[in-house]
Amino acid sequence: MNVHTNIPLKNYLTMKLGGSARFMTDVSTADELAAACRNAKSQNLPFFVLGGGSNVIATDNGFNGLVIRNRIPGFDVLEDTASGAIIKIGAGEDWDETVAKTVQMGLSGIEAMSAIPGTVGAAPVQNIGAYGQELAETFVSLEAYDSETDQFVILENADCGFSYRHSIFRGEQSGRYAICSVTLKLFKSPPQPPFYEAVERYFNEHGITLFTAANVRDAVIAIRSEKLPDPSERPNTGSFFKNAIIDDWQLTELQKNWPDIPYYELDGKQVKIPTGWLIEQVGLKGQLLHGMRVHDKNALVLINESAASYSDLAAARDEIMAKVRDTFRITIEQEPLQV
Ligand SMILES: Cc1cc2nc3c(=O)[nH]c(=O)nc-3n(C[C@H](O)[C@H](O)[C@H](O)COP(=O)(O)OP(=O)(O)OC[C@H]3O[C@@H](n4cnc5c(N)ncnc54)[C@H](O)[C@@H]3O)c2cc1C
User: Fold this and answer.
1) Which of 57, 125, 173 most suits a substitution to test ligand 1, by most atoms within 8 Å of the C-beta?
2) CATH classification of 75-187, choosing from 3.30.70.260, 3.50.50.60, 3.30.465.10, 3.40.50.1000?
3) Which residue owns the Cα nearest ligand 1 atom 19?
């Protein structure tokens, strides 16, 4: 195992902020991943698995432990039938390249999640989702190294506790499992309308009436390139805040002052409110706060324009959260995980 010391984390995180990792190593097999976790544990060092660093924020103190960069490859079709295919993908594979491959194979199920940065292994951690699809809908199982029992385990869909941008991997079991591969069930039937509003609009504007996974992928890539800044040019982590989930009675209260408040019904008792709208209403869309720009095309995104350190980001975040809380009595939550 090749271990490097004192590595600036900002070189590995798309927000380009944060202190150094005391140790860092790359792994490209499940056994190497397990060995790295065991090694850290035997020396009482904290550890965490890093993918593409597009959903992690590091404080200025960095990480006083071992960062394990997961590079495990693999793309194996386990089952291919008339209706679909079951595919096992190495956790270190690039997510968007995986989507592209499945779309080329004529499979549907993850095409609306095109162009999400990062690795396949990180996808279950926050149950990634976009444009009306989320991972849980096609996820079958994953293989992981369980650092608590020192064994490889298979976790099925129901074991993962998936909900909106959440799973056990960022909840009650955070840090326990190192994911080695993910198995998905995809379909040969074309995607069916109705599509997410922005995708429908794109199809109408481009006169597209034949719906295929490839068309949805093209639409999503075009829409995202308009709305989301490229992290390699303007450091960011995509949505910095989760959309807000509130009870129906809270919505009724809010509608008295904001009759046009947008919302999506969830289960009859709760609704999802676009946090970007809340941030826009408090006048922060497009503003520069402590070197962090609230993106002028999508107020959920914070861009590191000139922040000197994590504390600048934290100050900007806290200011936004306080303004939203004071105005709407809604506590919005940070999406990226923090080390
Ligand atoms: C421009 C932009 C747009 C984005 N758009 C979306 C979007 O539309 N939808 C969405 O859901 N997300 C979006 N994201 C967030 C991010 O891309 C996803 O969360 C992605 O899955 C993170 O992958 P990663 O490999 O970069 O993970 P990392 O940032 O490296 O890690 C994220 C978390 O997963 C854990 N982790 C990573 N790999 C493993 C593993 N093998 N085993 C165990 N734990 C692991 C890490 O410890 C960390 O806690 C966006 C980000 C950016 C920068």
Assistant:
1) 125
2) 3.30.465.10
3) 55
What is the enclosing helix (H) or strand (E) of 152?
strand 151-156
Q: Which CATH architecture has domain 236-338?
A: Alpha-Beta Complex (3.90)
Please enumerate in sequence order all residues whose Cβ is within 8 A of that of 80, keeping only pairs 6 or more positions apart, or say none: none
| Ligand 1 centroid to residue 327 C-alpha, Å | 30
Residue 217 structure tokens: 């992928």
Taking CA atoms only, the protein residue closest to ligand 1 atom 34 is 122
| Catalytic-residue membership of 148 | no
Q: What is the distance between the terminal CA atoms of the chain, rounded to a whole angstrom?
A: 23
Mean per-residue pLDDT, 13-41? 97
**Distance in angstroms (rounded) separating the CA atoms of residues 24 and 1:** 10
Whether the CB-CB separation of 184 and 134 falls below 8 Å is answered with: no
Output the CA torsion 250→254→259→262 (10° steps): -60
Averaged pLDDT score across all residues of the chain: 96
335 given a catalytic annotation: yes
The number of CA neighbours under 13 Å toward the Cβ of 312 is 18
User: Does the active-site annotation cover 234?
Assistant: no
Q: What is the pTM of this model?
A: 0.94
